[in-house]
Specification:
Elements (H helix, E strand, L loop, with lengths): L7 E4 L7 H14 L11 E4 L12 H11 L30 H12 L4 H8 L2 E2 L10 E4 L2 H14 L5 E4 L1 E4 L11 E4 L4 E4 L13 E7 L4 E5 L4 E4 L2 E11 L4 E12 L2 E3 L2 E3 L11 E4 L6 H5 L9 E3 L3
Parallel strand pairs: 1-2, 3-17, 4-15, 4-16, 16-17
Antiparallel strand pairs: 5-7, 6-13, 8-9, 8-14, 9-10, 10-11, 12-13
């Protein structure tokens, strides 16, 4: 089995991993890992994340009561698997996404709950009651798909001209939960979109914002912030399965399925989940859920164009 051959497993966003899930990982690897019966099967475990960001999800009172009987908390560090296990801790100190030192300090103050009156006043200066009154290319960061979808549909309906519908070409094994783009993409000329792939020629990256200026039979023309207009063609993502190659004594992979679609998504609004790993220059935070303010805030590069709003 593959798990008997691997040397290390990396788990990103570890703050969201529940204690019971990590115990399941441990039990599985004890049975199927390189060394039977030892923690995590003797495989090196690398956990990456920020515990001050998204927490593990425990749904409902009944599930919480069950958790309380078996765990100190739902966080991964209270799993049975980590009892008595020593870890080497590495703290990443340099911020790469933002360069404005005052903005970095503000984000850290929110994150650490050490915010001052002056910093609160600075945030309040960016508050608007109705985000719908704002214009421009700002991205609206919301907590739910419903809020993002409502905003996108509202903005799309404002555009004149007919909508175009593009259906994804899905082949082989590709789970719906792993779709990298919309299965049914509905767009119009003038729509604000976000690119969902990294262009091999470096013209855009995953998360770049642009505006559709023409829709042709086999390509989209997208105008970016600098004024450049680029042709965007359908893109094919591959879903891989992994196996142990006895000849090379290493992990091998093969495409199990493909998903082909234009690599764009309507982007007047997106959820905080879909903003993971992306950077925006201009954003409006739907601050109805205050607990998400810091994770949302650090998706942005500069504070000058940002706003807070109660409306999504």
């Amino acid at each position: 089995p593959v798990y008997a051959k691997i040397d290390a497993i990396v788990i990103d966003e570890i703050s969201m991993v529940r204690a019971d899930l990590l115990d399941c990982v441990d039990n599985f690897l004890r049975m199927n890992g390189r060394t039977k019966g030892v923690p995590f099967g003797g495989i090196q475990m690398i956990f990456i994340g920020d515990l001050y960001q998204l927490p593990p999800v425990v749904r409902g009172k009944q599930e919480q009561e069950i958790f309380n009987k078996h765990y100190e908390s739902a966080y991964f560090f209270d799993s049975h698997a980590l009892r008595g296990v020593e870890f080497e801790y590495v703290e990443l100190e340099k911020v790469y996404r933002q360069t404005d030192e005052s903005f970095i300090r503000l984000l850290n103050s929110i994150r650490n709950k050490s915010i001052t009156d002056e910093e609160i006043e600075l945030i309040n200066e960016r508050y608007v009651e109705d985000s719908k009154a704002l214009s421009g290319d700002a991205i609206y960061l919301t907590t739910t798909n419903a809020m993002a979808g409502e905003r996108n549909e509202m903005e799309l309906s404002k555009l004149k001209g007919k909508p175009y519908l593009f259906e994804a070409d899905i082949r082989g094994d590709f789970e719906e939960t792993s779709f990298p783009a919309d299965e049914a993409l509905r767009i119009k000329n003038g729509a604000q979109v976000m690119l969902l792939n990294n262009d091999p020629d470096g013209r855009w990256v995953n998360g770049t914002i642009g505006t559709i200026c023409d829709i042709k039979r086999d390509l989209l023309l997208v105008r970016f912030a600098g004024g450049d207009v680029e042709a965007v063609y359908p893109f094919t993502w591959k879903n891989y399965r992994f196996f142990w190659n006895e000849e090379t004594k290493s992990l091998g992979s093969a495409a199990a399925g493909t998903f082909t679609q234009y690599p764009v998504r309507l982007a007047w609004a997106i959820t905080i989940h879909k903003s993971q790993g992306k950077t925006f220059d201009n954003a409006v935070v739907a601050a109805r859920d205050q607990s998400r303010a810091a994770p949302k805030g650090d998706r942005r590069r500069l504070p000058s164009g940002d706003h807070l709003s109660e409306a999504g």
